[in-house]
C-alpha cells in the first residue's frame, strides 16, 4: 500500500492487517504534550492537513531479536498513521546475528528415544521400554512470577500465548569433592566422579491453601527416637529460616507500600550510613542467620543468574522489591508450548527479518546524497541501509561495541547440540570443544578511555559501559548425578553449591583466600578490622563493612566464578513443567554447572551473558532514560522546523532487561520497549501514530491505554520534583507494585465483562477486595499468617504419614 493512500482506502484493507498486527494504543498526543514542556512556548503536535499528502512511512531498524527486540518491533509494526485511521505507519526491519530469532536460538527439540522414532530416523539406539515423547526444551529456562511481570503477562495474554502454574518446590544441597585437586580445579575440568552430592539441607513442597493461594513449606526428615539429633537440628534450622523469612517479608512489604524501598539501610537508626545498602550489608547488619542466608542467597543467585560476589553487590532494595511482590503467595509460571510460540506470535507482523546479519557500524547519512533517511546501518557484508530510527535491543556491552565500530572481544560460541534433529545447516551450531575452552570471565568489550570525546556516540558508550555482565553456561543433559541420591528428594528446582563456597562473599573470607593463594608471591592484602573472630569479621556493626573495592581497587570487582565457581548451580527437571517430555527419562537443564555431566548424557550446551546490578548500573539506568527523554524532546522541538537538522544520536534508542530498574528479567524487556515506542510516537507528531481504531480492546496496547494515562499523570506530578525523586528508579520503586495491582484489576474487570457467570464474578470481586486489603502491610501479614496456619495443618499431616512409612506426596503439590 502506498504511503499516499487516503484513510478510506487504508480502512478497506485493515481487516487483513489486523489479523497479523497487535495494535498499540490511542493517539500520541498526550505523550507528545507531556514531553513537549520545553518552555512556555512549547511546540504542539502538527495538525493533520487533508490537502497535504500524508508523510511517508518511518523506517525503523531493530538490532537484536530477544524478547525486547521482538516486542518493540511487534508494537511499532502495529502502529497506524492518522490517529489509527490510516495505513501502517512504520516499516520495521529486524536484524539478528544468529540463524533464528534470538529468544529461541538456543532452545531445542528433544529426539525421541523410543524404538519406533529411532528406526524412522535410521538410528539403532532405540529403547523398546521408552515412551514416545515430543518435547521441546527452552534454553535458558523461561519462568516468571505474574506478580513481578505484569506487562509480560499482558503481552502473552494479548498474543494468545498460554502459560501454566508450576509448583514452587526446591531442594538445596552442597557438593563436595573427593580430592583437593578437584576442589581447586575449574568447573570445566571437574568430573562428576569426584563430586559427592550431600543430603539436602533444605527441601520444600507446595500446599494449596485456597483457590488462589499456594504456600511452600520445608520438608522434615522422619523422626527417629533412637537418634533425634538430626530431626532437632533440622527443626531448629527451619525455625531460624521461618523467623528470618517473616522478618524480611515484613520489612520489604512495609517499605514497599510506604514508597521508601530505596531508603532501606540509609537511616542511622537502621544501622545505615546514609548510602544505599547492599544485599550483604542488609543480611549481615540485619542479623539474618546463616541458616537463612544459606537458603536465600543461592536461591536469588539462581534468579539473577550470577555469582555470589555479584549477588552481594546487588542493592538490597532491588532484591527486596522482588521478595515483597512475589512472596509468599506467588506461583512460578511457564509458557505451555515453549517460547517458540512467543517468537512466532510476536514476529508475525514484522515484514523484514535479516538473519545471520551482524551490524558493524552506524553513521550519519550525507544530506547531499541521501534525503530519505538520516541514519545508515552497515552490516558485516558491507550492505548499507537507511533508517529514520535505530533501536538497539542487544546487551549493553554489545550495543556499545557496535556504536564504537568495534567487534566484541572473545565472543561466545554458538550453541552446541548433540543427538538432535537439527533441521538446518550444521554450521549454525558450535562444537563442544569451543564450550570447554570458553573463558567464563566476561571481558570488557569497550573501554571508554579508548573512545575519543569527540565521538558522536561518546555519551551513549560511556553510559552503556557502566552495565556489568557475567557469563553463565547452561547444559541440557540426562545425568541424574546432579540430583540428590534419593529420588524422593528430587524437586522442580535443585540448587547446589560447593561446600567451600562463600555465600556472603565476605571481605574477611576473601582476604583469607587471597592470602592462601598468593603466599608464594609475597602479596599482603590489606588487613581487615575486627579479625579476631569470624563473627566480628562478618558483623561489622560499628565500623562498617570493608568494601570489596578497598581490596581490589575496582568499583566492580571481578567475579571469581571462572576459578572457584563461587555461585549456585541450579538443575531444573524439565519433565515437571513440560509433560510432553514424558517420565521415562529425566531431562535436566543445569545452569552454572560446578562439575561436568557425563559426556554421553549431554544434549546441548550454551553460553549466555547476564546483566547484573550494582549502584553504578542503577545510576546508569536513570542516566539512560533521562537521555532518551531528552532525545524525544529535541526531536519534537525540531519537527516543526526541519527534521533533518537533528543529530544522529537523537535517533538511536536502547531497550532490554538492563534498561529498566529492578532485576534484569523479561519484564524489563517489555516495559523498556513500550517506553521507547512512546518516545518515538511523541517525537514524530506529523505521522500521528496510534493503534488501529478497529483493533480489539483486549489487544496488548489497547489494554496499555489506561496504564499510559496513569504514567503521564505521574510524570506531570514529578516534573517539579528534585532529580533523585523523579528518576526512573525512584518512580519504579515507589509505584511499580501499585501498577501490578491495577493491571490485575483491569484484567479482572475485562474477564467479568466477558464471562457473566455469577460464581466467577464473586471470585473476582473477592480477589479485588483482597488486593485492596493488601495495600496495608499489616493486614497482608495477618492474612499471610492465617493461610500459613492452614498450610501447616497439611504440612504436619504429611509429616506424620511419612514418619510411619506412607507416601504423603499426594497430600502436597509436590
TrEMBL record:
Transmembrane segments: none
Pfam family of the protein (one): NAD_binding_8
Region annotation (Disordered) ranges: 1-26, 414-443, 516-565
Ranges annotated as biased composition (Polar residues): 1-16, 549-565
Domain of life: Eukaryota
One Gene Ontology molecular-function label: oxidoreductase activity
Annotated Basic and acidic residues bias: 431-443
InterPro entries (UniProt xref): FAD/NAD-bd_sf, Zeta_carotene_desat/Oxidored
Protein name in the entry: Uncharacterized protein
